[in-house]
Design brief:
The protein is mainly beta. The protein is about 10% helix and about 45% strand. Strands 1, 2, 3, 4, 5, 6, 7 and 8 form an eight-stranded antiparallel sheet that branches. The chain starts with a helix and ends with a strand. Mean pLDDT is about 80; it is low at about 1-30.
Length: about 150
C-alpha cells in the first residue's frame, strides 16, 4: 500500500507544470516534466502569479494553484489552501486524491464512517460521495478527475 501511495504521489508531483523561478503563469497542459520542491509547496507557490485567490462561501478565503490540466479538462492536479469549515456534502463533484501538507481534514460519510488525514497522509473521495467535511484549515496537493 505504501509503495502504491508513494508512486501515486511521485506521479502527481512529476506531472506538475508551473515555473516558480520565473513566477509567471504557464500553460496548464504541458509536454515537459516539471519538479516542484518541498520548499516551494510549503508556501511560495501560494504567492505565485499562478495562484488564484477566491472567497469561497463554505471555505472562506482559499488559494488554488492549478499545476496541470489535461487538454480535455477532465484531469487536474494542483495545490489548494483553505480556512476552517464544517459543511455537508450532498454529492462530491469529482473523483479526488489529496495529500495533506498542513492542517487536517475530517470526512464523515453518510453511514457514519469517519476518516481523518493529517500532514503526510492522503485521502481519496469518489464522485458522488455524501457526508460531512470538517477542517480547522489545510493545504493539500490534489488530483481530480471529472467523469460523466
Amino acid at each position: 500500500m505504501r509503495m502504491i501511495f508513494t508512486a501515486t504521489l511521485a506521479t502527481c508531483l512529476n506531472v506538475a507544470a508551473i515555473a516558480l523561478a520565473a513566477d509567471a503563469p504557464r500553460p496548464l497542459a504541458t509536454n515537459k516534466p516539471f519538479k516542484l520542491t518541498v520548499a516551494d509547496a510549503a508556501g511560495p507557490v501560494f504567492s505565485s502569479k499562478s495562484a488564484v485567490k477566491l472567497n469561497d462561501p463554505n471555505d472562506g478565503p482559499v488559494t488554488d494553484v492549478a499545476l496541470l490540466k489535461s487538454r480535455d479538462g477532465r484531469f487536474e492536479a494542483g495545490l489548494y489552501a483553505a480556512g476552517p469549515s464544517d459543511q455537508p456534502i450532498e454529492s462530491y463533484p469529482d473523483d479526488e486524491f489529496m495529500y495533506v501538507l498542513e492542517g487536517s481534514i475530517k470526512l464523515t460519510s453518510a453511514d457514519g464512517t469517519v476518516l481523518e488525514a493529517k500532514p503526510g497522509e492522503s485521502l481519496s473521495i469518489p464522485k458522488g460521495w455524501k457526508g460531512r467535511w470538517t477542517t480547522p484549515g489545510y493545504k493539500k496537493y490534489y488530483v481530480t478527475y471529472t467523469r460523466n
